[in-house]
Design brief:
Peroxisomal membrane protein 11C, PEX11, 80% helix, 0% strand, 239 residues, transmembrane helix, membrane
C-alpha cells in the first residue's frame, strides 16, 4: 500500500505523470457519465455531473498545454532531421510528425484565447486547425509504427533463423518487447484518431456521430495504454 501510494505521489509530482492521470480520469468520467445518461434517457444527475467533471478536466489540460510549446520545440530541435535513425522513411515521417505537433499548439492556444475572450476572433476554425494537426500527427505516428513494426519483424525472423546461445534468446526477447510497444502505440493512436475525426466539422467521415460514452471509451483505452507503456518502459530499461 505504501509503495503504491509513493508511486502515485511521484507520478502526480511530475507534469507528464499528472497529465496522464488527469487524461485518464477525464475520459473515464466521460465513459461512465455517458453510459449513465444514455441508459436513463438524459435524466441521470450523477451522469451529468461526471460529464461536467470530464469537461472541466479537459479544460484543465488545455490550459496546462499553454506551456508545452517550448518543450516541443526543444524536442524538435534535438531530433532535427533525424540523422540518427537507421531508416530514412522513419526519419522523414518523424520529422513531419514533429512539425504537425509543433503547429498544433499555437492553433489550440489561439482557439482557447478566443473562447476566453482574450482574442477577438472566432475559435471554430482554430479548433479545427488544431484537430487537423493532431489527427495528422496521429496518422503519421501510425504509419511510423507500422514501418518500425515491419523492420522489427524482419529482424526477429532473422534472429530466430540464426538462433544460437543465450545472447540470441535475449535479443529475441528485446525485439519482442519492441514489437509489443509498437503494436500498443498503433492501438493508442487509432483510438485517439477515431476521436479526432469525431471532433472534425460535420460531414467529414463520422464527425459528430460518437455518443459521449464512445468518446470516453476511445480516450480511456488510449490513456490506459499510455500508462501501461510507461510502466513497461520503466521495467525494461526505457524501451
Amino acid at each position: 500500500m505504501a509503495v503504491a501510494l509513493s508511486s502515485l505521489v511521484n507520478t502526480l509530482e511530475s507534469y507528464r505523470g499528472r497529465d496522464r492521470v488527469i487524461r485518464t480520469l477525464c475520459y473515464s468520467c466521460q465513459l461512465v457519465g455517458g453510459i449513465l445518461v444514455e441508459k436513463r434517457n438524459d435524466k441521470c444527475e450523477s451522469g451529468k455531473s461526471l460529464l461536467a467533471l470530464a469537461s472541466q478536466l479537459s479544460h484543465c489540460r488545455t490550459v496546462l498545454r499553454l506551456f508545452d510549446d517550448l518543450s516541443m520545440f526543444a524536442y524538435s530541435i534535438q531530433y532535427g532531421l533525424g540523422k540518427k535513425e537507421e531508416d530514412a522513411t522513419v526519419r522523414w515521417i518523424s520529422v513531419l510528425g514533429n512539425v504537425a505537433d509543433q503547429l498544433y499548439y499555437p492553433c489550440e492556444h489561439i482557439a482557447w484565447a478566443a473562447d476566453a475572450k482574450v482574442l477577438r476572433t472566432k475559435s471554430d476554425k482554430w479548433w479545427t486547425f488544431s484537430i487537423v494537426f493532431w489527427g495528422l500527427s496521429l496518422l503519421l505516428g501510425i504509419v511510423r509504427s507500422l514501418r518500425i513494426l515491419c523492420m522489427l519483424t524482419r529482424k526477429l525472423r532473422k534472429e530466430k533463423r540464426s538462433s544460437f546461445g543465450e545472447s540470441s534468446h535475449l535479443k529475441q526477447k528485446q525485439l519482442k518487447t519492441l514489437v509489443q510497444s509498437e503494436v500498443l502505440t498503433i492501438m493508442s493512436n487509432l483510438a485517439d484518431l477515431a476521436n479526432a475525426i469525431h471532433w472534425m466539422p460535420p460531414g467529414f467521415l463520422w464527425a459528430g456521430q460518437f455518443p459521449s460514452w464512445l468518446v470516453g471509451l476511445m480516450g480511456t483505452v488510449s490513456s490506459l495504454i499510455g500508462i501501461y507503456r510507461t510502466t513497461m518502459g520503466n521495467n525494461h530499461g526505457g524501451v
